[in-house]
Fold this protein.
Amino acid sequence: MKAAVFMGSGDIRVLDLDKPDFGPKDVLIRVSYCGICGSDVTAYKTGNYVEGMIIGHELSGVVEDVGDDVDHLVPGDRVVVNSAIPCGHCKYCLRGRPSQCENLELIGITREGGMAEYLSVPGWIVYRIPDNLSLIHATLVEPLSNVLHAFKISSFKVGDTALIQGAGPIGVLLLEVLKMAGASKIIVSEISEGRRKLAEELGADVVVNPLKENLPLIVERETGGEGVDIVFDAAGVPETLKSNFTLARKAGEIVIIGITEEPAEADFFTTVLNELTIRGSYLGFNEFQEAIRLVSEGRIHADEIITSIIELDEVVEKGFKKLVKPIKDCKIVVKLGGG
């Protein structure tokens, strides 16, 4: 089978590999599509994945075969796969915090991923999807589950104002969720012209280019001088992380979803004086079924968010190299088997 394999910083190769084995509790999936995640792009730039690993965790496909102990799926079922595999018995799993599992495995990061023609995974993280949900659109289920997790652990209330830093896939999915939840005003900050245009089309109240406009001044103007109730940082770059502290109102909240390994300044003076709450949000897991429902019900503008579909052999030139410095694309999806 063909697969996209991470070989180090700036080095992803499409290789011919053996079709994976599967055990009695596993499901063998013929992968149809797999999205390129922002964390994959970060690894491409920094080299922070395990070398020799098949990448990809935003996947959809069709069940090829099932192990003897799997009874909720049959060959031919159309499915999506949860990207996280918590152990279920450590103290964090028992406390209902699977994203903090002490033995957490991650598809495409710590074990073989789904940017391949076939994938073998434990059956219990595989979900059948409704007939009306296309396999292309289903690639948004995994990132949407992450967004729903960030939203649920936030203090958001109907009528709150919000700032979204970054209008990549996570940022625009956040925009969709916040609109559904009843935000009174949503400001989106994004440096890419194409992504700003998408945020406008999806209903952001105010869209800002922070390289050319004064974001703090605009936030102050749009919130009557108070700042927003919640800042959601989906950009994960030092510049946005530094600016968040003065963009939230007093007793406001900052929810950080975007990840960076670069040093970032933190304004603890403002944090203390304004009694800000800062939360990190890592993974969705329990939110997967809700994400399936929202995408299948058409509550997410999937056709607008998925801006390119490419072949596996094009994954570097038309995928990763374009996403390192995005000009237009939001979500790029790799076609493996179609359907």
